[in-house]
Structures are given as structure tokens and as C-alpha cells.
């Protein structure tokens, strides 16, 4: 089975593994399916990240320059454009297989643009859309299996805006294999086609000791730490030793079942009590909320948990606690 995305369904900000994409990658692995993007999509996504990051860097530089007119601004690390783009490219290549564009397809893509042939547009543009289509179609024929292609570009790939089936001109190119080719306009649509939405119950008792240790490691090393003032200058070494991790208010936001596995996303509050020797730097505990992806075993135990985001992160310091006076008592 092949699952392929167009550029417009990849995140423009943040990480590659959005909520829907992370779920799909888990499900695809259970189904032995390949999740891929054409090399044209890879290039488009990298260039989009480069453009957006450059704009953000320029805006940041302008803001710092303006602020420096009124006060001293301490120097701090800002990643280079090259490192931002490289990191994004590496993320894409880790998440997806890359479908290389055949030379013949590249030539035909330009011919389709000139001839205004779908998925090229009537105004004589659309060579990249044509290249994406031809790459996915070639791979579909080569694999002789089921293909799920997702793009929200309904103007060029769909029958019409009110009918999200594959355009008849493109469907006719698939011949007898059209029954095994499925067009989608969202990642969620692919998920619905591949698996079933289920109710899953996850409690604090669902996490084994090894799973909790994994969560601790992910929290103290998570890049979201830099978003919180208390942790902007902290390293993972500042947190140890951590005595335990406690979960509460666990909320399973979504769960899917496919090929005998259950995967989903949950949010939870957590507290990490710290050993006494850490008190001088971080206090008695670190607490906050986190969101992450889980996979359940047959007995509803958490087999794997990936921390996707951190929220409301803070540490409790004993010197911040008000000591009651006699009048208060």
C-alpha cells in the first residue's frame, strides 16, 4: 500500500509530525504501508520553509533593532536560515519515503502545462502539479497495489469543488487499476479510510515504569522547554535526579484501531518530584501539561508514548511558598 501527500497537506510551521500525520504514520507502520512524498513535494516544502523562516528572521532582526534604540539587548542564539532549512529537510526525509521524479515524467509535465491537460490549469500553469501526479501514478502502476493520494488542491485533482472524487480525466489514465486508487483532500480522510475511530481508556496505571522513564527523558529534553522563562537556560542535567512522575487529568483526545493496534493522542497533567539535592536550582518539583501519542498493548497498557508538546510548565520552589503568620492562623 502506498500513501502519498501533496505539499499543501504538509505543515508550514512547527514539526512535520502534526496530530494527523503522526497518527497516520503509526497506522501505516502497522499496515506495512509506505508513506511517501514525491521529490517535487520535498523541494516545494523545503522552499516554503526557507521563505517563511527568512521572513520570520527579518521580522525578528527588525524588532531587535527597534528595541535596541531604547535599551541594551543581550545577545542570544538565533538559528541560521541554513540550519532551519536543513533541519526541516531531515525531518521530512525521516518521516517519509521520497518518490523520485522520472525524467520522462518531467518532460510530460511540461507538455501537459503547454497543452492545458489535467492536472495543469487552463491558464497554462501547473507543471509541478502534473509532475506530482505523474510521479504518484507511475509508482501506483509499479506497485500494483492500493494507493491513497491526498491533496486539497481540488481545482486540479478533484472532479469539482462539490465532488471530491478524482477528476474523470485523471481517473481514465489509471485504466483498470482505478479501483485501487483513492483520492483524498485531507490526512483525516486517509485515516478514516484505513482505520476505525475507537474509544480508548488510558489511566495513570496504564503506564509501566519504563514508559514513565521514557516520558521523563522526553520532557527534560523537549525543545518546548525553551518557550518557558523558567527553563530557557536549563539543560537536561539540571533536572536530575527525578524521583518519579505522576499523571492526572488524562484526556484521550482521539484513538484509532487498525491491524490489531490502537494508537491515539492524549493530554495530561503531570508532576515530576525532584530529589532534595535539586532543590537549590529547580525546587521540589516540575509540573505542567503535556500532549503525546500513545500506542496500547492488547491489555490496554501503554507500549509507547511520544511527547509532542508541553504546556503550562513551571517548577515549584519552597522559597516561593508563603509562610503563614500567626495572624493568618
List keywords for this structure.
329 residues, alpha/beta, five-stranded parallel sheet
Overview of this protein structure:
By secondary structure, the protein is an alpha/beta fold. It contains ten helices and twelve strands. The strands form three sheets. It has a five-stranded parallel β-sheet. Strands 8-9-10-11-12 form a five-stranded antiparallel β-sheet, sandwiched between helices. Strand 11 (285-296) and strand 12 (302-316) form a beta hairpin. Helix 4 crosses helix 5. It is flat and about 70 Å long. The model has no long low-confidence stretch (mean pLDDT 88).
Strand content: 15-25%
Structural class: alpha/beta
Rg of Cα set: 25 Å
**Major beta sheet, specifics?**
5 strands, parallel
Shape: flat
State the distance separating the first and last CA atoms: 69 Å
How many strand units? 12
Identify the strand order in the major beta sheet.
3-2-1-4-7
Total of DSSP H or I helical runs spanning 4+ residues: 10
Give a brief rundown of this model:
36% of the residues lie in helices and 25% in strands. The protein has 329 residues and is α/β, with parallel strands linked by helices.
SSE layout and pairings?
Elements: E1 2-5, H1 19-30, E2 34-38, H2 39-67, H3 81-95, E3 97-99, H4 103-115, H5 127-143, E4 147-150, H6 154-157, E5 158-160, E6 163-166, H7 168-173, E7 181-184, H8 187-194, E8 196-197, H9 209-220, E9 246-258, E10 261-273, H10 279-282, E11 285-296, E12 302-316
Parallel strand pairs: 1-2, 1-4, 2-3, 4-7
Antiparallel strand pairs: 5-6, 8-9, 9-10, 10-11, 11-12
Helix pairs in contact: 1-8, 2-3, 4-5
Amino acid at each position: 500500500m502506498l500513501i502519498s501527500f501533496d505539499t499543501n497537506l504538509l505543515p508550514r510551521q512547527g514539526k512535520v509530525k502534526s496530530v494527523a500525520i503522526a497518527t497516520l504514520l503509526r497506522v501505516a507502520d502497522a499496515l506495512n504501508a509506505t508513506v511517501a512524498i514525491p521529490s517535487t513535494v520535498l523541494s516545494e516544502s523545503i522552499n516554503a520553509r526557507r521563505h517563511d523562516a527568512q521572513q520570520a528572521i527579518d521580522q525578528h532582526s527588525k524588532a531587535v533593532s527597534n528595541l535596541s534604540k531604547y535599551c541594551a539587548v543581550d545577545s542570544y542564539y538565533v538559528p541560521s536560515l541554513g540550519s532551519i532549512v536543513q533541519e526541516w529537510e531531515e525531518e521530512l526525509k525521516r518521516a517519509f519515503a521520497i518518490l523520485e521524479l522520472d525524467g520522462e515524467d518531467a518532460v510530460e509535465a511540461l507538455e501537459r502545462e503547454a497543452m492545458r491537460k489535467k492536472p495543469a490549469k487552463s491558464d497554462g500553469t501547473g507543471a509541478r502539479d502534473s509532475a506530482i501526479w505523474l510521479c504518484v501514478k507511475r509508482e501506483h502502476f509499479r506497485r500494483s497495489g492500493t494507493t491513497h493520494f491526498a491533496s486539497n488542491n481540488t481545482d486540479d485533482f478533484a472532479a469539482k469543488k462539490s465532488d471530491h472524487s478524482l477528476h474523470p480525466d485523471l481517473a481514465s489514465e489509471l485504466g483498470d487499476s482505478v479501483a485501487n486508487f483513492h483520492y483524498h483532500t485531507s490526512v483525516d480522510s486517509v485515516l478514516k479510510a484505513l482505520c476505525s475511530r475507537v474509544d480508548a481508556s488510558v489511566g495513570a496505571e496504564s503506564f509501566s515504569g519504563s514508559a514513565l522513564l521514557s516520558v521523563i527523558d522526553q520532557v527534560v529534553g523537549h525543545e518546548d522547554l525553551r518557550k518557558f522563562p523558567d527553563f530557557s537556560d536549563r539543560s537536561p542535567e539540571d533536572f536530575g535526579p527525578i524521583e518519579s512522575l505522576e499523571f492526572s487529568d488524562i484526556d484521550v483526545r482521539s484513538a484509532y484501531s487498525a491491524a490489531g493496534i490502537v494508537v491515539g493522542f492524549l493530554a495530561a497533567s503531570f508532576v515530576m518530584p525532584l530529589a532534595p539535592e535539586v532543590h537549590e536550582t529547580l525546587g521540589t518539583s516540575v509540573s505542567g501539561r503535556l500532549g503525546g501519542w500513545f500506542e496500547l498493548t492488547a491489555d490496554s497498557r501503554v507500549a509507547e508514548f511520544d511527547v509532542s508538546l508541553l504546556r503550562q510548565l513551571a517548577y515549584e520552589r519552597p522559597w516561593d511558598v508563603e509562610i503563614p503568620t500567626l495572624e493568618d492562623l
